[in-house]
Design brief:
8 strands; 46% helix; elongated
Amino acid sequence: MMALREGEPTHAEPGSDDLTVVIVDDHATFADLLALGLRHEPGLTCGGTATSVEKARIMIDEVRPDVVVMDVELGDDDGIEATAELVDRYPGLRVVVLTARSDTALIQRAADAGACCLLPKNGSLIEVLHGLRTARQGELSVAPAMLKQLMSGQRRNEEPPAISLTERECEVLRCLNQGLDARRTADRLRISLYTCRGHVRRILAKLGAHSQLEAVAIANRLGLLDDDTR
């Protein structure tokens, strides 16, 4: 297999509507394999790979990608801190974060940093491709397997509080669980954006959550989404 050099794109002439992706990972083999995986995917083109945040900054300045795939652990660099820096520096840039571990604190940090997707590094290429294709939705989506792992770590001897959601609130919550933002949820349910945001506020209040991500995590822990089809 021919190794890809840092900064070398996998497509010489990407289509004008393609999403350009830069991969930031200090494991060169992983980055090369992911880059090659993008090579034959319609609508996606790899602008290059970088093994450090410093090299990523230079590459992103040159390539101006639509999406960055960012590993959490980059030697001495912190992928979450790099995500916050890049999102702030390049408005409109989306960052898909890959991690070998998952915990509530990490997910919250990724959300605060402005990541659009959090995926397990040992997951499938299909998961990564889906994360890239849905990167423009605007809300942080977390791989279902990671959420399930988090919920399984919760203490099971706690008596869950009684939560009463209306039928419409349940519908909105299911949409949030599927990674839809408020606008797309409103479109799917054929309600106004103002009405949808009102439902979201009431859901957060009832669940004692401070964010949509936290609301989804709490709802999964309480079994409120057991019948949800992802």
